[in-house]
Amino acid sequence: MRKSLFAMVSVAAAFAMPLGASAQTYPDRAITIVVPFSAGGPTDTVTRLVAEAMSKDLGQQVLVENVGGAGGTLGAARVAEAEPDGYTLLLHHIGMATSATLYRKLPYDTLNAFEYVGLVTEVPMTIVARKDFEPQDFKGLIDYVKAHKDEVTVANAGIGAASHLCGMLFMSAVETPLVTVPYQGTGPAMTDLLGGQVDIMCDQTTNTTKQIQAGTIKAYAVTTPERLDVLPDLPTVAEAGLPNMQVGIWHGLYAPKGTPAEVVDRLSKSLQVALKDENVVARFAELGTTPSPEADATPAALKAKLEGEIQRWQPIIEAAGVYAD
Length: 325
Ligand code: ASP
Hints:
By secondary structure, the protein is of the alpha/beta class.
């Protein structure tokens, strides 16, 4: 039943596509989306939900491969070098923009190595700690880190990751550098936070909401201008005294440069369908985020976002003088 539905969907899709050698048959085998961080983390969670819905729409399996390391740049490099045939894609976040400046020797040219499929979602960050960490609120956290700056450890997913960026914003807002502990993704970092091996972390609600609700970690603030429906007791960074820490972690779907336009168009349409999928909408809501609107799940919107964000972060990173090399 499922199979025949897939077949019907593929046939309908093939007729709807413009003529072109690849477009006529695409996709005729499984597609892989590379997540440039470990399994079990926030980027992985978002990607698996979207991949499942795209798979239903495309009538082919959409697999997820985790290629973590170097703040997401290893996974991005893998896709930049992949065959531009629509079968290897990249789902990356704001780190795609910040790493363009943070890494002076990237193995790919950020603005010229990819085709843009579309924006996926923008996820709030939360500032969290191991359950038994002493400070009881955000003000207490600021006083505590200032008094114990050589002891407090901050987990992140490497230079260029969203957790790194948010951690940097926090340290700069409280004017206190702290000891950072890099992981290949905040999935394993969360495991260590739960185990008490590391003290604090800034991470997407897609990784922290369930733990905060279950009381297995402590939460201090959320980085959105408004409080979240799923975490109504959690103050915003502005309420908690640090308005400059507002940051949203946007995600985009990319293909290697040279992927045929018809294939990119098919993927973009499929992403738009996936972002309206009931399960995606419901699970995103539970995790404190919303799918990008259809107009943003487009190549033009992602291109504009990436270009704008590179320009926005470049002077901030240069002024901070923090580089990965
Ligand atoms: N999104 C996380 C970060 O940027 C990494 C991950 O998805 O594991 O820190």
